[in-house]
Amino acid sequence: MDWSPLKRVNGFCRQMAHMLAIASEDAYCKEGLDAVKRRWGCEVDLIDHKGSQAIVIHGPALIIAFRGTEPDEIKDWLSDLNVGKTEIEGGFYLHDGFLKAYRLLAADVTKVCKANEDKDIFLTGHSLGGALANVAMWELETHRGVRIKRSYTFGAPRVFGRKMSRRVRNELNGRQFRVVNRNDIVPRVPSLLRFQHTGAVAYINRRDRIQINPSFFYVAIDRILGYRANIIRSHFMEYYTQGTGSE
Q1: What is the pLDDT, as a whole number, of residue 90?
Q2: With contact defined as beta carbons under 8 Å apart, do 49 and 104 qualify?
Q3: What's the count of helices (H) and strands (E) in the chain, helices before strands?
Q4: How many CB atoms lie within 10 A of CB 41?
Q5: Contacts (Cβ under 8 Å, ≥6 apart) of 198
């Protein structure tokens, strides 16, 4: 694995996004952990608590990739999505289900980050894993004193309440990126009235080209022209890996 893309520091980097997309896909461990280790050429650990999972890739940099929702579970997950809020401090809210899922892993994630503070640390994840990466970055930076170099999420749902999302954008500005694949429905839930996204948008259009922070009208037109793309199928991680790998 070529680790050089992780050395880039200014704005969105497609090569970095592709590398972290591979990590997010590997978090599912479909080929087994040994295959993941061979691909990355370094030690890879698995953190697993009551269904919440992440892999930790110990290379020249540290990558923590949170596992997302299995493809055959997406429809059920969307219909059962818990939209309750948890107040964490003075009027700041985030998604209750995502916070609880992250806290199952929080102690181990914090421990591995503290043990590797001499390295650049990257967080990533697909679907539910992207939501966990967003919660993790906030908690690690604000409550654990851990500096996160970059976070790239893929097809992540909304996580933060409106007031908190503004605070997150202000404090983590320039280090969070969320990649959205054309007709993927998951980034459009939960309700915009209750939760909002954070981070710059990297939108993969119907031609597999990436647009940074496109306008609402650009996205609407692109989705109409690419209407044949299934809203569930567009969420599959393989299409994010493909889209970020295209020139």
Answers
A1: 75
A2: yes
A3: 9, 10
A4: 11
A5: 134, 159, 160, 165, 168, 169, 172, 176, 178
- Candidate ranges 44-58, 68-82, 179-193; pick with highest mean pLDDT: 44-58
Nearby residues of 11 by Cβ (< 8 Å), 6 or more positions away: 174, 200, 212
Torsion angle, alpha carbons of 184, 5, 137, 142, to 10: -150
Name the domain count of the chain: 1
Whether pTM > 0.90 for this model: the answer is yes
CB of 137 closer than 8 Å to CB of 124: no
Domain of residue 235 covers 4-245
How big is the CA angle at 58 (ends 132 and 186), to the nearest 5 degrees? 25
Other CB atoms within a 10 A radius of the CB of residue 119 amount to 16
**In which element (H, E) is residue 239 found?**
helix 237-245
- Please work out, in degrees rounded to the nearest 5, the angle formed at the alpha carbon of residue 152 by the alpha carbons of 150 and 158: 120
Q: pLDDT tens-digit profile of 127-148?
A: 999 999 999 999 999 999 999 9
**The domain that contains 80 carries what CATH number?**
3.40.50.1820
Which CA distances in Å does 167 have to 10, 150, 188? 22, 17, 21
- For 12-158, where are the E strands, in sequence order? 43-49, 52-58, 62-66, 85-89, 92-95, 121-126, 150-154
Q: What is the dihedral of CA 159, 50, 21, 167, to 10 degrees?
A: 20
Position 66: which residue type?
F
